[in-house]
Fold these 2 entries.
Entry 1:
Amino acid sequence: QSALTQPASVSGSPGQSLTISCTGTNDDIGSSYLVSWYQQYPGKAPKLIIYGASQRPSGVSNRFSGSRSANTASLTISGLQAEDEADYYCCSYTGRLSWVFGGGTKLAVL
Amino acid sequence: EVQLAESGGGLVQPGGSLRLSCAPSGFTFSGAAMHWVRQAPGKGLEWVARIWSDGGSISYPDSVKGRFTISRDNVKNVLYLQMNSLRAEDTAIYYCARDSDYAFANWGQGSLVIVSS
């Protein structure tokens, strides 16, 4: 199972909105709404911010939103803040009792 | 509050074995599917193993299949990862994670495994 494809890095200014894409295949994102997104700060464990492609866990800011279309999932961060600077990973359940992650995207807030 | 605490990491020679443990608290362990996820130094996340709440269903990616074994003790409330035939490329921080809706809802702080001679 190949890793999902994410841009290596993205950047934005405070207050802006930006979107991180996550591209898979018909065997993962294309056949499953069970896409999740994680935020990770350096030296820390990842934190779940989106599950089920578009659901937010309790306590996660509503500035984070997710969507899925065909073989691509997207994470949108609105009203960008300095504290959003982190690594972001997508993940998809493949439907064959396995999970696959994206390579990760480093977000810089300029 | 859900908490997960990994232990058992360390330095091991190539070809050696190591067993990681994960101690959960703050939720009903026997009712939760659990995973191990790893992260090589400076690299991304990789799913390593999953076990259903009753231990009846287990799965692995090809990269560790036949070498790693996930197990759980729902009486002692402990999750394990037995790692055999370790290779340099298994060097990573290993996280245990609680499954919720097929996502990794809660993570431990991680346990570092270094495979080197």
Note: Chain A has a mean pLDDT of 96.
Entry 2:
Amino acid sequence: EVQLVESGGGLVQPGGSLRLSCAASGFTFSSYWMHWVRQAPGKGLVWVSRINNDGSTTTYADSVKGRFTISRDNAKNTLYLQMNSLRAEDTAVYYCARINYGSNSASDYWGQGTLVTVSS
Amino acid sequence: DIVMTQSPDSLAVSLGERATINCKSSQSVLYSSTNKNYLAWYQQKPGQPPKLLVSWASTRESGVPDRFSGSGSGTDFTLTISSLQAEDVAVYYCQQYYSSPLTFGQGTRLEIK
């Protein structure tokens, strides 16, 4: 059974940092591209970042470029999102999601999400 | 960036009736070399992550009831629920994966009338 389990969310002050993790199981993690997608409270879905299967190619939304870094450890079957210089507008539930085929296809599995709250 | 616009923002339909949600992209998401539309539909229930219903505009995912169907091409797409069930109450999103940044529609909230 495919499972994605996020962790690392919490309350952080503006300007602070957090590292999110997404533990993957039930599939060959190293074969799949992965996304981070976020959802502010009561709002819609917003794509944050994407990484290829071996970690050599990354892309970011303009709103997080230069502040967030996506990475992965295929030996540990884990995806990461390092978030620096956090702002109030980064407050959201952060989901990791698997891209079901190659680099450009839909996301067939999602984690339950981890809540990040940026507030003083 | 490709802007995805859904209509309506909310919809109330009687049980057993048809529900139709529209999605329009600001540019075509039909990739000529593959002749595929890079468009997905997701369902999100309260407190849950999104669930993939339809990919490539019209390919229903395994396990998704056949009352859900996707159609359209180019810039105009539709998700149809042929006979609304109580468990279909949710917010529905379209998403384009034709180009980066991936973008979602604003969501359509579906309720029972």
Note: The mean pLDDT of chain B is 97.
